[in-house]
From TrEMBL:
This is VOC family protein. Residues 5-123 form the VOC domain. PROSITE patterns: VOC (PS51819). InterPro entries: Glyas_Bleomycin-R_OHBP_Dase, Glyoxalase_6, VOC_core. It comes from Polymorphospora lycopeni.
C-alpha cells in the first residue's frame, strides 16, 4: 500500500494574506511562503502547514447552520491552557465569539473571514 502523509490544511478566503496574518498571530506561526493567491504558514517545529487560498465569491459559513444556510465543511480545533485568555487574544486579533456555545470547556469563535474555529481547554 502507498504511504500517505497529511502535510497541511488549506482554507479558502477572500483575502488569503489577511487570514494568514490572523492565524499566524493567533498561533505564533510564521509565514513560510506567499504567492498571489496562496499563503502558507509553517509551525515553529517545522511540522504541518496551514494554508490560505483565494476564494472569489467566498460565502462565510453560518454557525450553527440552519436550513439553506452555507454550512462549514471543516473547522480547526485549537487546544489552550487558559480559555478566557485565549478567547481574549483571538478577539483582539479580529475574531468574534459565536453566539451559540455547545460546551462549557470550548469556545466557538469566528475568524475574520467567518470560518468557525474552536478553542478548547486542555484537561
Amino acid at each position: 500500500m502507498a504511504r500517505l502523509t497529511l502535510t497541511g490544511v488549506n482554507i479558502g478566503a477572500p483575502d488569503p494574506y489577511a487570514l494568514a496574518e490572523f492565524y499566524g498571530q493567533l498561533l505564533g506561526w510564521g509565514i513560510g511562503r506567499v504567492e498571489e493567491d496562496d499563503v502558507w504558514l509553517r509551525a515553529p517545529d517545522g511540522g504541518r502547514t496551514l494554508s490560505f487560498q483565494r476564494e472569489t465569491g467566498h460565502v462565510p459559513p453560518k454557525w450553527p447552520a440552519g436550513p439553506g444556510d452555507q454550512r462549514m465543511t471543516m473547522h480547526l480545533e485549537i487546544m489552550v491552557d487558559d480559555l478566557e485568555a485565549a478567547v481574549a487574544h483571538a478577539v483582539s486579533l479580529g475574531a468574534t465569539v459565536a453566539g451559540f456555545q455547545p460546551q462549557d470547556d470550548v469556545r466557538v469563535c469566528l475568524d475574520p473571514a467567518g470560518h468557525p474555529f474552536c478553542l478548547w481547554l486542555k484537561e
